[in-house]
Design brief:
333 residues; alpha/beta; six-stranded parallel sheet
């Protein structure tokens, strides 16, 4: 059997991690023949809660789970890891300004970027989940010297899954029948869920999503706003942020990064821009990507962009530039 894959999950005593851990440890993400060593990082105050999580993981009696290390120590957490799932972040509290949230998270992700550089394998694959995810990934990447920039991604698969499900419900099919929806930009309320290149299989026949939906006003209006504001809607209903769906999206993101995308299909990931579609190089922006089984990905090039899409893509780009600039100022303070 293969050597255990060392997988770090931060914010490991939180609710997203609680929904995520079982799937990772069971083999749903990295495969049924890949042993896993889990390293669980959280703040010292959460170590009591973490001990209960470790008990539950032990009691699952999972064949692939070779070890579980709970810790609040950065060096222990990042040592020789293969995968970093960075869930932990400062949540926005009532009365907190956006710049204050950015400043708090810059400190966290600067520290974690430095820890990746100092302790992790140089081949480590990183997915940032904690918000603001794109900008947190940018800062982490900037301080992780010696690790390739393309190894840093952020989660926009949750937005893709939300968009797929909205289209599937509208047309009356399963979500798996909807392919190649794109999430452009920031994981925020400015993101642009784009169906102009997406297809849906209805009654055994594949059609373009706009042709199947037959409702451009909905596609350009309520569809976009529902996807953009879905996280807020979940919080309003549950009084807690998305956890089960976020964990499922992390699994989807990493499984595709590990095993590759299907022929003719792409998925959405927040990745460092290579300048495609007029997006400033280095900015962590959600693009459609195709992935090979060797864990390398490429941004899908030369898709046609209409005026409506361009306007939306530019708006979310501008928000990301502002966030990045505010974060870089916070780095100097």
């Amino acid at each position: 059997m293969a050597e255990p894959l060392r997988v770090l999950i931060t914010g490991a005593a939180g609710q997203i991690a609680y929904s995520l851990l079982y799937s990772v440890a069971k083999g749903d993400v990295f495969g049924a023949n890949q042993p896993i060593s889990l390293i669980l990082l959280d703040i010292e105050a959460m170590m009591g809660v973490m001990s209960g999580v470790v008990m539950e993981l032990t009691d699952c009696a999972l064949p692939l789970l070779k070890s579980v290390v709970p810790t609040s120590d950065i060096a222990t957490a990042f040592k020789d890891i293969d995968v970093a799932i960075l869930v932990g972040a400062m949540p926005r509290r009532e009365g907190m300004e956006r710049k204050d949230l950015l400043k708090a998270n810059v400190r966290i992700f600067k520290l974690q970027g430095e820890a990746l550089s100092q302790y992790a394998k140089k081949t480590v694959k990183v997915v940032v989940v904690g918000n603001p995810a794109n900008t947190n990934a940018f800062i982490c990447k900037m301080y992780a010297k010696g690790i390739p920039p393309e190894n840093f991604t952020c989660l926009t698969r949750l937005d893709q899954n939300r968009a797929q499900s909205q289209i599937a419900q509208k047309v009356g099919v399963s979500a798996q029948d909807v392919k190649n929806i794109i999430i452009w930009g920031n994981h925020s309320s400015t993101q642009f869920p784009d169906v102009s290149h997406a297809t849906v299989t209805v009654g055994g026949h594949e059609a373009k999503v706009p042709d199947a939906v037959k409702d451009d006003a909905w596609l350009h209006g309520d569809f976009i706003s529902v996807v953009q504001k879905r996280g807020a809607a979940v919080i309003a209903a549950r009084k807690l942020s998305s956890a089960m769906s976020a964990a499922k999206a992390v699994c989807d993101h990493l499984r595709d990064w590990w095993f590759g995308t299907k022929e003719g299909q792409w998925v959405s990931m927040g990745v460092p821009s290579d300048g495609s579609y007029g997006i400033e190089a280095g900015l962590v922006y959600s693009f459609p990507v195709q992935i090979k089984p060797d864990h390398t990905y490429t941004i899908v090039k030369d898709l046609s962009i209409n005026d409506f899409a361009r306007q939306k893509m530019e708006a979310t780009k501008q928000e990301l530039i502002e966030e990045r600039d505010d974060a870089l100022k916070a780095c100097q303070e």
